[in-house]
């Protein structure tokens, strides 16, 4: 059954009630007051809503938005994982939450210590010489690093190095970051097994090469086994190696990018260290880098620094969460995170490859990419994703990575239990079975949400958010 559409709060007005102002002595206890006295147009006829209406309205709205607290959230790549409540409790403590960067330094000693410890731990885990906590998101970390790479080449008098090599499996933010800094992005093709081969970059190893950006494990969840030899070759040609470390949750405690040829890498604190995902910010995307790039770092104190990329210290609220998470788990626990993330993804792979096509069969780590090839009755990835909503799950990532046609990418993360993985796989199997038994029903899914399918291109490019009373339910 379809959940009813929730009308806007203005529709819940009780026009017969008085307009109550915040300081009115006769304010009713069960009313909230919206004082828009300064607005000539008032509130479109809605000046007052009873408290109970407001509470119910927002409670209903909160259930329309899918969240990880209600079940597995299988988005691959950008991933939402459980944020332990301990992190949240510590972050909310006024001793940490009320801090202001302009407090006298003696009141910030504790906070500085926490940031130093976090940076030190990230460096130890990743094998880089130094870490800057400043960038406010993964993509912002990329941008910061690309600026540093540009400054590095300029400082060496090599302004003609303007080419960034980017594999076809890359996240869209990679070419965007390089292009924003004025580099020319050249796509390099990974092999049929999903792995980037040294062979395919050889023709670009020349005096124009600025850097290569490699996600490892890549967006198929596959370990780039030629990473070290590619890095060697790029260095020999005078270029640098950027590792997109968004998938560090499949590397932590197992391999150190800073020791296998990467010069610089961003971390997605949300993906690996359980902080909320900022979606471009305010999240946190610290960067780790080696000595060769240190003078160019945002707050290096060197005249060659690219300068600050964020005010004050960065996203303190994220640091404290990540710091608590690292302290809670310790070195052994962090390695177990990686192992469990890989185990969970491979459990899903083993169950679902019996019913879905697995285009690339190479062993995968923390995420697995299926596609819609071989689904009967012209059922496509979008239909599977939409129908999954009716079964109570957020859809997986769809149509990414873009070099896999009809991709359906699943990442369960380490925090899911076997029961929850089974519940998800059962739902997926049931949905796939419908492709044969009831395809028309599938193509009209979801059937339980207030709105079924919208024209997604129009919704993104031509959004109309004007409230029209005719839409009242
Ligand atoms: C592989 C990869 N690179 C870069 C990013 C960008 O990170 P953010 O969304 O924090 O900007 C993501 C998203 O998490 C990602 O999955």
Helix content: 25-40%
Q: Spans of 5+ residues with little confidence (pLDDT < 50)?
A: 18-25, 27-39
How many helical elements?
13
Count of DSSP strands: 12
Tally of individual domains: 3
CATH superfamily of the largest domain: Type I PLP-dependent aspartate aminotransferase-like (Major domain)
Side by side, the strands of the main sheet go 3-9-8-7-6-4-5
Return the CATH architecture of the largest domain.
3-Layer(aba) Sandwich
Shape: globular
Q: Please outline the major beta sheet.
A: 7 strands, mixed
Strand content: 5-15%
Distinct ligands, ions and cofactors found in the model: pyridoxal-5'-phosphate
Write down the Rg: 25 Å
N-to-C series of helices and strands: EEHHHHEHEHEEHEEHEHEHEEHHH
In angstroms, what separates the terminal alpha carbons? Answer: 16 Å
CATH class of the largest domain: Alpha Beta
Provide the structure class: alpha/beta
Find the CATH topology of the largest domain.
Answer: Aspartate Aminotransferase, domain 2
What's the mean pLDDT score?
91
